Amino acid sequence: MYATQPLLPEFRTLFHASEAAVGATISSLIFACALAAPFIGPLADRIGRKRIIVTSIVILALITFGAATATTLSALVAWRFAQGLMMPGVFAVTLAYIAEEFPVEVAGQAVGAYIGGNVFGGFLGRYLTAVITPLANWQTAFVALGMLNLIGALVVFVALPRATNFHPSASLRESLAAIGGFVRRPEMVATYVVGGTILFTLTATFTYATFYLAAAPFGLSTVALGNVFFVYLAGAIAAPISGRLIDRYGNRSTLTLAMVASAGGIVLSLVPVLWIVVLGLALTSTGVFVAQAASQGYVGRIAGAQRSTAASLYIMLYYAGGGLGAIVPALMWARGGWPATVALILVVQAVAVILTRVFWSGRVASDSPAIT
């Protein structure tokens, strides 16, 4: 998803484009996720989880190979959009699988482990493109990512157990009708918006931090920018731990703490000393991943029936927020650089905390009908 982030300064020069234009290699994919998510959930509620997950990964791999053939920025953006159409078939459906197949006592840990895998994948995608591109070119990096996707599809096909608690919806119409019920529930709508603020924070931070760190006084190269993404590994450790926090203290308290920590990290990044900036980015990303586990887990607990549909709506708003995170900060960047971008991110994080405190319950009872 974010494989082009460390390449953005290079793309800016290669394609003679602006920050917002090369940022479209991220925003186009994220908006495609938001567009596809509402449709993939009802389909998965009808025909099953594993079939959708495996098929989506295989097609994603083929499209990634196609992206490696792009010779213009517009072509690359188009291929990235196509990639995004496939990703909800993995993200949204896996969340529903976890909610159904894991008992409530360990559901938080299961989501935390899943988020940990996402975090590691997010690091690996960025790091591989940053390392391979100077040695060969960015197209070769995309071929490597496509190969990893094919391997991942094989592992999932062989190792992911068939769902035992899945009950297909009577029809796609029934699943689509469930959308109306979800959007009439304030608690669900607030959770969807919180999801959007979380990915807005992550996308805005690491998209514009690359421009920040590539400029003076830092002047980092593509490989050095890729090394910065090692801060993601702190999130890979924190995400499984976050599951234990959720199980013990509840989703609301965990998310509030996570967003406060993330806000502290983004403020630290204003200090023009490289190690302090990196520390701030590590704290920001770790807080985001913990908040992500809390919000995604909350959807699974309160949705009730039609979990894939509920998760798909979450994914739609989640990625819509992420797409805005790649575009809207460009306005702030043009006017005030990194400090103005940080100010915008802090406002968005405050919105997440306010919505959580107002609309979320402190805990979800262990006998909630959301998980059977």
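The record above closes out task 2.4. Task 2.5 opens with a second protein, given below.
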Amino acid sequence: MGVDVAGVVEAVGQNVTEFKPGEEVFGFRRGAFAEYVLGRERNFVTKPADLTFEQAAAIPGAAQTALQGLRDAGHVRSGQKVLINGASGGVGTFAVQIAKAFGADVTAVCSTRNVEMVRSLGADHVIDYSKENFTRSAQRYDLIFDAAGHRSVFAVRRVLAPNGILVVVGAPKGRLAPVARMLEALVLSRFVSQKLVPFLATNSKDDLLVLKDLIAAGKVTPVIDRTYPLSETPAAIRYLEEGHARGKVVITV
């Protein structure tokens, strides 16, 4: 039904003090595939003037997942070697940029057609998964942010430093696959020195403001693969479910 939204405030309730009609905002709201949405003040922030509505709508869920996963679950620090698996997707494109903003040395894993795009986002090293299995590398990483899930947790932890952190945010297609993969990480983490963290993001206005600052500083830019008019939402969902979108897919009104 859509969970991320950007638009112009049409009206406000009597207790709303932060926004007024005519202001441009972005944030969270279920049912965002619509001409109008009704949401709470705490779920929105003002849209930067130099961002399009499409760019703003691409930010909330994916960028917040990347930020919280790296910062809160992964404890990313400057100078760390960080690997982003699934670097060309909606979450991954933000993760590459946010990890760089924290000062990490970033290795990105993606397909051949996305290598140059991911490199343009600031990745220090790019691995084409169709040519190289990163889980067989001799390199070891302090933090792995797995937004793809095409490799098992057992395989991925082979390239994790002895005291490194693996943040599991993605999984193969299938309704139960994400849950199973998170359980795999939880169980395995009890028997190894590494920290294997299943991760789900939560909505946070404070983090929207953090992301807004990163964007204003030129450190993060939303990547949009395709836009579809509202009337073609089913086609947009079909394309997204193919699993090959580069960055975000956006519905326009």
